[in-house]
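@here heads up, posting the sequence + SMILES for the pyridoxal-5'-phosphate run so it's all in one place. Ping me if the SMILES looks off, I pulled it from an old spreadsheet.
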Amino acid sequence: MKFENTLQFATEMDNNDSLRAFRNQFIFPQVNGKDVIYFTGNSLGLQPKIAKNYVDEIMKDWAELAVEGHFYAEKPWWDYHERLAKPLAKIVGAKPDEVSVMNTLTVNLHFLMVSFYKPNSKRFKIICEEKAFPSDQYMLQSQVRFHGYEPSESIIEIKKREGEHFWRTEDVISKIEEVGDELALVLIGGVNYYNGQVFEMESITKSAKSVGAMVGWDLAHAVGNVELKLNEWGVDFAAWCSYKYMNSGPGNVSGIYVNEKYLNRTDFNRFEGWWGTKKESRFLMKPIFEPIASADAWQVSNPAVLSLAPYLASLQLFEEVGMQALIEKQKLLTAYLEFVLQEVDKAVDSTFEIITPKSRGCQLSVFLHGEGRSIFDYLMKNGVIVDWREPNVIRLAPAPFYCSFEDMYRFGEILKTGILAE
Ligand SMILES: *Cc1c(COP(=O)(O)O)cnc(C)c1O
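bot reply: prediction finished. Complex structure tokens:
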């Protein structure tokens, strides 16, 4: 498609957008009396208007039913989490039994490491990407130390090549083959938080499985953003947070995926609690743990229902829109943003560079040469919400659920004015 950097073209694109009506399902913060242009859906998604109703429903049931709400609320609390598994399974390409919702992301990664990182003196190494999200680095280092190994000997970071801003799949795969039978686990962010790169999850998973390693993916920036087929790809486990592209609310609960081959097993390491034991016998308070035959076996405590409520609201919107339609718009919208950035770059005589590779979701990371921080401040003051990463990177994530082509055009104009005013 031939893009044009005009308001008329952007408006036409919006008029032809079948997802256009969804924008109105979300609440936009205001700056100078106008809806902001929101580029940080990769950090905290906007609030769906229906989220409040879902939370209010729990508050009302709690007021009117108190403890009876566990079983007699309209959506009973004791199995409320099960309502989230089915729509989530579609989003991550899994079977509903392979998905559960609990805790928060880093907590879940720790819990999953109990099951999927079982090092021995021969096979103890972990492969991850260099400069992974800090929480993932701390998690891996502390797990390795917990098992009595040295992070410096056990954790192998895949580096980018000199002068390049992205990871090459062949470098990941050749490292997996090189480490071979010493490799216990590959754990990488499916979409890198910094440069927005989508890793080739399928081929990396196959490669790791072929040398006998476990494979997990941190899908924080991937879920609700790119196509996932965890079951088909043979991924062992995955976890994600729900407050980024999933729009579930700040710090909200995490989801996990556990491959079906590990379900319904008692010969498997797992930290356990009463919410993972069979529902039929749970309230008999027996001393023997009988795992639920689904990823719910990894649930430890009874979940925070007040947190599940806005997540369920958001999943209802995902059900309505469908991942395929969302991904199609995402490709077009991000391509249009890239085009607008290139047009601005020409107009201001090249002051920045897009460091996100072609294998991407909806995020573009832009490296600003020169006065980066002041441009960031200018954007924020003018109603463009972006995020800043040291040393000089602005991340732009136009979430296709609620961002418009007009937003991209208007952003370009504000950016141009800001740079020229420098
Ligand atoms: C956002 C993000 C996290 C956040 O972890 P929490 O436990 O939810 O605070 C962790 N890892 C990655 C890769 C992320 O992008």
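MO: The chain has a mean pLDDT of 95.
MO: One more: The longest strand covers residues 183-189.
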